[in-house]
Design a protein that fits this description.
alpha/beta, eight-stranded mixed beta sheet, two-stranded antiparallel ribbon, about 45% helix
């Protein structure tokens, strides 16, 4: 359901008859298995996830090469064996995240609330106390979906999502996210609504580290190599005088919790220098990623867009 401003509201995703068409039955059958996975004990679910990751590393050459290429760029000081081990660990965590998505769809809020934890919440609270708008700059970790869940138990949150081509999957993704956040805006709807809703007491969750091409981007280093980095976060922050808090979500095996790390606000951000803004953003994300490198989304083609004259990385 879309309101007059083009915003998908919480609870506003009715199941229509068109989504029950026979051509979608295999997806619904698959969802029944996803439901069963959500009922598994954590240890069994993550055993399944690690097995998926091991198979992906062994047999999916394309994905393995993307991960290894990114890791070689980001950690040139590591020897070949260490880089390969990190790639294997990453794909196993990615597999765990895939099976953990079942929780986002089917686990109760009460159950999830026991498993999430926020560190650095004082940075949000201080901004709200000062009546400032807050933008959470969430890095693409494998467990990123647990950040909106954790934050939504404490605050009103909203954000954007990328629409899926398959209407059933699009419904599932939007519906699962709107169980927690106040509303979501599809990327196709543009930035106007995101900016309009960025007010005190309401957190905007923005994913700033994806390579979306040269539009609204500048090339600045990210782990030592120039990357097409979005200028959008700084523009939004400037328009709404928002506090910009870098964020990383990961699974802590020792405590068996999905942790959300909120870092202090980026200093002197935004400035009038778009390159400086993008560089500061990347540097702050690097600090968070290095704390849990195996759980960052190295599967993304982070350096897909290249400056003029540079060849393809992948």
């Amino acid at each position: 359901m879309v309101n007059n401003n083009g915003v998908n509201q919480q609870g506003g995703f009715p199941l229509t008859l068109s989504l029950l068409h026979p051509r979608f039955w295999l997806i619904w059958i698959g969802l029944s298995f996803v439901f069963l996975i959500s009922l598994m004990p954590q240890s069994l679910r993550h055993y399944l996830g690690r097995s998926i990751g091991k198979l992906t590393y062994a047999y999916n050459k394309k994905r393995r090469n993307i991960v290894l290429t990114n890791i070689k760029i980001a950690f040139p000081e590591r020897d070949k064996h260490s880089q390969q081990q990190l790639a294997k660990q990453h794909l196993q965590w990615y597999g765990c995240a895939l099976v953990d998505y079942s929780l986002l769809l089917f686990a109760s809020k009460r159950r999830l609330k026991q498993w999430v934890q926020i560190e650095g919440q004082e940075h949000i609270d201080q901004a709200i106390k000062n009546n400032q708008s807050v933008m959470i700059l969430l890095a693409h970790s494998v467990m990123l979906e647990f950040a909106p869940i954790a934050l939504s138990f404490q605050y009103d949150c909203y954000g954007s999502y990328k629409s899926a081509k398959n209407p059933v999957m699009d419904w599932i993704i939007a519906k699962s996210r709107c169980r927690y956040v106040k509303f979501v805006v599809s990327r196709e709807q543009g930035l106007r609504q995101l900016i309009r809703e960025l007010i005190p007491q309401q957190l905007l969750i923005f994913l700033p580290d994806e390579d979306l091409g040269k539009d609204n981007a500048v090339f600045v280093p990210f782990f030592g190599m120039d990357k097409a980095t979005l200028t959008t976060p700084a523009r939004i922050a400037k328009l709404r005088k928002a506090v910009s808090l870098p964020c990383f979500s990961y699974y802590d095996e020792k405590e068996a919790k999905y942790k959300v790390i909120i870092a202090p606000a980026i200093e002197d951000y935004p400035s009038n220098d778009v390159n400086d803004n993008a560089l500061k953003l990347n540097q702050q994300l690097e600090i968070l990623i290095k704390q849990n490198p195996a759980q960052y989304m190295w599967l993304m083609r982070l350096y897909r867009t290249r400056p003029d004259g540079e060849g393809a990385v992948y």
